[in-house]
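#structure-requests
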Amino acid sequence: MKSTMPEVGIIMGSKSDLPVMIDAVEVLKLLGAHAEVTIVSAHRTPDRMFDYAKSAASRGLKVIIAGAGGAAHLPGMVASITHLPVIGVPVKSSNSIDGWDSVLSILQMPNGIPVATVALNAAKNAGILAAQILAVSDKQIAQNLLNFKADLAKKVEESAKEVEEGGH
């Protein structure tokens, strides 16, 4: 029987990021992966961030998804502390420069500290990527991903047929 312990840690810099980050929670649940969710600010609670990243692997996490807006240091700082893969979600926040500051802060990591980066506000893709990482060693998540992708293809085929038949 598969454990219900969290395999993915979903963290964000503030509660205002939750409407974006909830998409990762939902897609992981759909794909059969267990996640924990919390707030960890790189700037306001650096000790909390350090403790979270340092203990993640020993608590059973296999992947971390970190969402952050503005200067967006959270994903990179967490990646500098843990050996686990970190997926960064740039979040367009109220103090953001159209989200570009967040995108570039997460994307432009120095050599040796990689952070996988998804598109602005694309927490759903971060969840799918985390599930793909887990699927390397979890046959059920792998099968759920295959079904998910087959469903995506089916929806495109249905849309194509509708458009081709004049149902614009």
